[in-house]
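For homework, think about our next protein:
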Amino acid sequence: MNDKLKGIIIGGVVLAALGGTLAVMKFTGLDTPTESSSETASSSSKVDESVQLIDKTAADITSIDVKNGFGGFTYTGASESGKENSGITELKGLALKTRTVSDIGEDTAQLKAYKLVESGAADLTKYGLTDAEAEFDVHFADGSERDFLIGIEAPQNRYRYLCEKGSSDVYMVMESLIKPYLNPKEDLVDTTLIESPEQTTTDSTIEFGKLTIHRSDLDYDMVFEQDDGNFAQSSSNMVSAQVMTEPIFAYLDGTRSTNVIYALYGLTAMTAEKVFPTEADLAEYGLDEPRCTVTFTGKDYDYKLDIGNEFHEENDKGEQQTAAAAYYCTIKGVDGKDCIWKVDASALPFVTVMPNDIISTLMTWNMVTDVSEIKLSGETEDTFALTIEGEGEDAQIAAVTCNGSEVDVESFKALYQYILTCPTKDGIWFEEPTGEAFRRIEVVCADGHSDVIELYKDTDRRAIVKLNGRPSYRIQSKWADRLTKNIEAVKTGGKVEEDY
C-alpha cells in the first residue's frame, strides 16, 4: 500500500471518529468542540470570556446565607472595628479553618465566571439549576443583596454551572470558588485536636506529665510517666524517657512505645462528624460509655480523649471491611473542640495496645558502673562487690570480688547482663504469689538506690517475679536455673551462658 493511500484511509477514520463525537455531544447537551475550541487554542490566540459577577471587597459583605443538601450555614463578615473575624453563625464557639472561612468572603466579593455559557436559557434543567445543588444569598453593607444558584458539574473539569436567581443567564464558574457552599458546614471546622509541642512552645520538647489509658476490655489501667533520668541503651534496647507505672513498673522500648506515648501530640481528626453533640448524639456514637478513655495531664495541660464506636469502610460490593478504619471521639481540655470527631484508627494505638507490645526486655536498669554490690540469696548466698575507678562516662570497673575472692570482670559483666534481661516477654503479672521467695537479687548502687528482684514458685515451669515488692512478671523457671549455674561459672572461672 502506497503512502498516499494510507493517508486517505487514516484521514477517513479520523473524520468518522470526530463525527461520532459530535453526535454524542449533540444528544447529551454537552458543549460542542466549536463552543470549547477556545480552551484548546494556544494562549496567544485565546479570548478572555470571563465575566465579573460581583466586584466588591470582603469588607462590603455583611453575611451570606447558604442552603444545600447538608442544611447550610450563615457566613458573617469581619466587623469594621476588627474585633471579630469572619465566622460561621452555626459554628460559633468552635475553632474554624480561618483561611478557608476568610476565603469565602474574599472569593465571593470578587466572584468571576469563566464564561457565559448561555444567555436567556429556555431550559435550566440541563444545567441542574431548576433543582439547584446549593443556593447562596449575599448581603452587602449598603443593604443590597445578590442570590445565586449552583448547578451540576460542567463537562470541563473543575467547573460548575451557576446563575443568579430569577435570571436565565447561565455561567460556568471554577468550582473551587464556590465549593464551601456545596459542602457541610462541618468541613469548616479546624480538625487539629491537639497541636504538637513545636507549634505551642519555643522549645521542641514539652514536659511529659502522666498519660493514662483506661479501656473497657481490660481490668486495669495503663499509666505512663516521665522517668527520673535513668535512660539506658544496650545492644538490643533503647529505653524510652518514659516508664510504665501501672499496672506494673516497667521500662519501655524506645522504638515500640513512641507511637503510643506521643500519639496525642498533633492529633488530627479526619472530619468533624457532629458539632455541639447532645447526650443522645454521644450515645449514638458510643461515647456515653467509651471503649477507651485517654487522659494526659501535666503542666498547663489536661486532656481527655474519649473513643467510641468504630467506623468501617465499605468495599465495591457495599460490604463492610473487617478492620476499623476510624473511631468516633470527643476531646476535652482544648478550646473550640465541642464536636464528635472521626479519627483515623492508625492515630489511636490506645485502643489495641497491650503492655507487652511496648515494654522493654530490661526488667531493671542500673549502669554497671553505678553499682556497688549485688547480693544474691536463696539457693546460694553470694555477694559481688565492685571497685569503680573514674567518674561519669570515664568510669570503669577496676575489680570485682565474690564473697571476698576476686573474679573475672568480664565474666561478672556477662552475669550482670543476664540479670538485667530477666525475661519480660512471657507476660506481666499482678496477683500476689504465695509462699516464700526461692531467690532474691538485690542490686545496690553507690548512691544508695537499690532494686530488688524476688522469684516465687508458680508451677513446675513458671515463676512469679516481684520487682521492688510488686508482682510484675511471670517467667520461665529455666531462667532461674541458668542464673544459679551462671553465678557458679563466675566464681569458678567458667563461661556465663545467655540461653536457658
